[in-house]
Amino acid sequence: MADIRLLDVRDAPLSLDEVFEAVRDPSAGGIALFVGTVRTVDEDREVQQLSYSAHPSVLDRLRDVAERIAAEINVVALAAVHRVGDLAIGDLAVVVAISAQHRQEAFEAGRRLIDDLKSEVPIWKHQTYTSGDATWVHAD
């Protein structure tokens, strides 16, 4: 089973270097890194800002997702960090990394990690548009 080296949800800016370093390993031939950022447009509407909120069970659910992927895909290590609180356009919202002996497993596990995180981990975003209206959206 892969080594789950870093899982966290934070209200401070995220570090690409921290997540990348967490999965570095001499036995890994490749590292897949995904970075989600706050974009200016969502579904043809101009975004002004957003805020992420998380349920108190967020770390337990994130660990469940990570453990499942580590058990199903042959990888060396994985890490995932998600931001909560108020974010501005361009801020890092989520960073996930996977190291594996080969790129195929790293890419596959990285995609599964971000997709399952977004669909199963209780993190939501409150998005405010330049028009002044706002909406709650499950973290995309």
UniProtKB/TrEMBL annotation:
What are the recorded Gene Ontology BP terms?
Mo-molybdopterin cofactor biosynthetic process
Reactions performed catalytically: 2 [molybdopterin-synthase sulfur-carrier protein]-C-terminal-Gly-aminoethanethioate + cyclic pyranopterin phosphate + H2O = molybdopterin + 2 [molybdopterin-synthase sulfur-carrier protein]-C-terminal Gly-Gly + 2 H(+)
Cited CDD domains:
MoaE
Where does the sequence pass through the membrane? Answer: none
Cross-referenced Gene3D superfamilies: Molybdopterin biosynthesis MoaE subunit
Which biological pathway?
A: Cofactor biosynthesis; molybdopterin biosynthesis
Give the record's keywords alphabetically: Molybdenum cofactor biosynthesis, Transferase
Function of the molecule: Converts molybdopterin precursor Z into molybdopterin. This requires the incorporation of two sulfur atoms into precursor Z to generate a dithiolene group. The sulfur is provided by MoaD.
The record's family statement is:
Belongs to the MoaE family.
Subunit info?
Heterotetramer of 2 MoaD subunits and 2 MoaE subunits. Also stable as homodimer. The enzyme changes between these two forms during catalysis.
Query: What protein am I looking at?
Result: Molybdopterin synthase catalytic subunit 1
Q: What is the lineage of its organism?
A: Bacteria, Bacillati, Actinomycetota, Actinomycetes, Propionibacteriales
